[in-house]
Amino acid sequence: MSALAGRLSAGLNWGVERFVAILMALLVLDVWIGVVDRYLFHWQLPWPEVVARYLMIWAAMLAISAGIARREHIGLHALISKAPEGLRRIILLGLDLVTFLLFFYVFWYGIGFAQTGGNRQAMIFGMTLLVPFAAIPVSAAICAIQTLLVAIRDQGALIVPNSEGMVE
């Protein structure tokens, strides 16, 4: 079960990291267009700043799950590494449970948040804010799933996965 959870976690993380990389490339392109517009062509495009905001929100929210997959939270490592060996497993399982519950809570209430975005219009595009607001429940769901997979993968042990997200 642990190996399967590790493979699923690594696969999910692989996809999320690539999607975040695409979002970041689009963000760089969008900001570049905004700079060229402002200082070179003076088109006065109204959308680059808004698109940059939405791309940054989506990228930042989705990137959280990559940190979860690799257990790259420096504060948690510092806390857990100071605990006695026997207590580490309990602390880590407890933190995983609290983390899962937090992300599930954000997912559950984020659905309503995204739905309210569907009733609001973006000032520039005339589109609803459903897609930008959906970053909250979508990323929270991915983080909750990733937390569950990592907890099963590591089974409460303080183990840092390798570059592929697998525990050795």
TrEMBL record:
<protein>
    <recommendedName>
        <fullName>TRAP transporter small permease protein</fullName>
    </recommendedName>
</protein>
<keyword id="KW-0812">Transmembrane</keyword>
<comment type="function">
    <text>Part of the tripartite ATP-independent periplasmic (TRAP) transport system.</text>
</comment>
<feature type="transmembrane region" description="Helical">
    <location>
        <begin position="123"/>
        <end position="145"/>
    </location>
</feature>
<feature type="transmembrane region" description="Helical">
    <location>
        <begin position="90"/>
        <end position="111"/>
    </location>
</feature>
<dbReference type="InterPro" id="IPR007387">
    <property type="entry name" value="TRAP_DctQ"/>
</dbReference>
<keyword id="KW-1133">Transmembrane helix</keyword>
<comment type="similarity">
    <text>Belongs to the TRAP transporter small permease family.</text>
</comment>
<feature type="transmembrane region" description="Helical">
    <location>
        <begin position="51"/>
        <end position="69"/>
    </location>
</feature>
<comment type="subunit">
    <text>The complex comprises the extracytoplasmic solute receptor protein and the two transmembrane proteins.</text>
</comment>
<dbReference type="GO" id="GO:0022857">
    <property type="term" value="F:transmembrane transporter activity"/>
</dbReference>
<feature type="domain" description="Tripartite ATP-independent periplasmic transporters DctQ component">
    <location>
        <begin position="31"/>
        <end position="154"/>
    </location>
</feature>
<keyword id="KW-0997">Cell inner membrane</keyword>
<keyword id="KW-0472">Membrane</keyword>
<dbReference type="GO" id="GO:0005886">
    <property type="term" value="C:plasma membrane"/>
</dbReference>
<dbReference type="Pfam" id="PF04290">
    <property type="entry name" value="DctQ"/>
</dbReference>
<dbReference type="InterPro" id="IPR055348">
    <property type="entry name" value="DctQ"/>
</dbReference>
<keyword id="KW-1003">Cell membrane</keyword>
<keyword id="KW-0813">Transport</keyword>
<feature type="transmembrane region" description="Helical">
    <location>
        <begin position="20"/>
        <end position="39"/>
    </location>
</feature>
<dbReference type="GO" id="GO:0015740">
    <property type="term" value="P:C4-dicarboxylate transport"/>
</dbReference>
